[in-house]
Design goal:
The protein is of the alpha/beta class and 428 residues long. The chain has helices at residues 2-35, 40-43, 47-60, 64-81, 103-114, 129-137, 152-166, 192-220, 240-259, 283-295, 299-305, 307-313, 316-323, 329-340, 356-363, 366-376, 386-400, 414-427, and strands spanning 94-97, 118-123, 143-146, 173-176, 223-227, 266-270, 347-348.
């Protein structure tokens, strides 16, 4: 009896040690997370359930000494892995931001100017309304730069102007923000000039500016930051041109991070979720791009998709704006961290679900991601193209007659059957 009591007391004492150790590290970790304003995706909160499971395993399976040691070491590793928010002073640092006429670049130029950095704000029109607003609202330190990232002469002239100002200190950072979306539609429907423009601005422009300003960046051992997109990490229906260009620039940044490590230059890419910025364009621009699409469609393609299907594409921009967040402060905060943190992250994902969606794409079966994408991305899948709609109507008729889900058109090829099954998935 006495032996049983001793065993019970021993187990209770061991359990108390596990609970105390877990509570101690939980409190310390939460304090560190709050103190350093660590985001959920950076805190790796998914590790916490794993630590709880490890705690249960150590308590139930391992002897007291080794079990407590293993659990203690795991908690220490997690605590040490939590990022610490140590920021460098902004004084004396300069940054070039492209695409500052409006939207995110415009807001970022103002934000960085308030933080005390010397901002070179690249604009398409030095006399435009966006440039005038920056002159009016920002400090005299902000310098407006005429910069079309696709224009070699303007990029070279901007380099001369910036190098003349920073001299031997070099340029601390470049923020590649300039970008275009143009239009959202099926990849087959998008004109080639949309693909070329997206690549020219979103990718080639980034490469061109980076190569030109790299000597100044290396001199300062500074930062190369690119505003990419969630579309650069995972496929989004209707974004073939835009996503391809953002995927290209994302990989470019990843390779440059490796290439510039030896020079002391840190490289980060920011992949925002859905925010209301001018990249969606105005209604007038949307109408122009819609007309551009129609003018470049072959008659047979236009006939197979149908006019009513093509008309639904015009509403996509408005749907995206409606579902987007107007609060762009998460992007501004991440850009600020990438520029001035002692240990910036290589990847940032500001925005609702922005870190979760790429994770699902990478770690789950493709059909899981496709189903998820169908639910969260506003699309035009409430209506099928005309040629598939006929099949769909026949399919529903056959179901009513009891012919079952296995029925397909007589004589249909395997490719046609696959496309019909896919169509049924997206419309269901």
């Amino acid at each position: 009896m006495a032996g049983e009591d001793a065993l019970y007391l021993g187990l209770a004492g061991e359990g108390a040690l596990y609970l105390g150790l877990g509570a101690l590290f939980s409190g310390l970790s939460l304090h560190k997370i709050r103190k350093n304003e660590v985001k959920v995706q950076d805190a790796s909160l998914c590790v916490l359930p794993a630590l709880l499971l490890l705690e249960a395993f150590c308590y139930l399976v391992l002897p007291a000494g080794p079990g407590l040691s293993v659990f203690f070491v795991a908690c220490v590793f997690y605590y040490m892995a939590l990022p610490v928010r140590r920021m460098l002073p902004a004084a004396g640092k300069s940054v070039l931001v492209t695409g500052c006429d409006s939207g995110l670049g415009h807001a970022l130029a103002k934000h960085l100017d308030k933080q005390g950095l010397l901002v070179f704000a690249g604009v398409l029109n030095r006399n435009g309304p966006g440039a005038e607003e920056l002159r009016r609202d920002c400090s005299p330190n902000l310098c407006l730069i005429q910069l079309d990232v696709t224009n070699c002469e303007e990029v070279a002239a901007a380099y001369c102007e910036v190098s003349g100002r920073v001299k031997d200190t070099g340029l601390w950072a470049i923020v590649h923000n300039a970008g275009v979306l143009l239009y959202v539609a099926d990849g087959e429907l998008l004109p080639m000039n949309v693909y070329k423009k997206c690549m020219e601005v979103n990718f080639i422009g980034v490469v061109q500016v980076t190569k030109m300003f790299m000597p100044l960046l290396r001199k300062a051992k500074g930062r190369l930051v690119t505003i990419s997109s969630m579309a650069g990490l995972n496929p989004i229906p209707g974004f073939a041109a835009y996503a391809a260009s953002k995927a290209a620039v994302t990989m470019f940044c990843a390779v440059m991070r490796q290439d510039l490590f030896k020079w002391g230059v840190k490289v980060s890419s920011i992949h925002p979720g859905s925010f209301k910025t001018n990249i969606f364009g105005s209604r007038d621009l949307c109408s122009i791009q819609a007309q551009n699409l129609l003018e470049n469609l072959k008659p047979d393609v236009r006939d197979e998709y149908g006019e009513d299907y093509l008309d639904t594409l015009k509403d996509l921009h408005q749907k995206m704006l409606t579902s987007s967040s107007s609060d762009i402060s998460p992007v501004l905060e991440d850009a600020h961290h990438a520029l001035l943190a002692q240990r910036p992250y290589s990847t940032y994902t500001p925005g609702r679900l922005a870190y979760l969606i790429p994770l699902i794409f990478r770690c789950s079966p493709i059909w899981v991601y496709d189903t998820f994408a169908k639910l969260i991305f506003p699309g035009h899948h409430t209506i099928l193209p005309r040629s598939l709609r006929t099949f769909h109507d026949n399919y529903k008729t056959d179901l009513k007659r009891g012919r079952g889900k296995g029925h397909f058109r007589t004589g249909a090829s395997q490719t046609q059957r696959t496309s019909e099954k896919t169509a049924m998935f997206w419309i269901s």
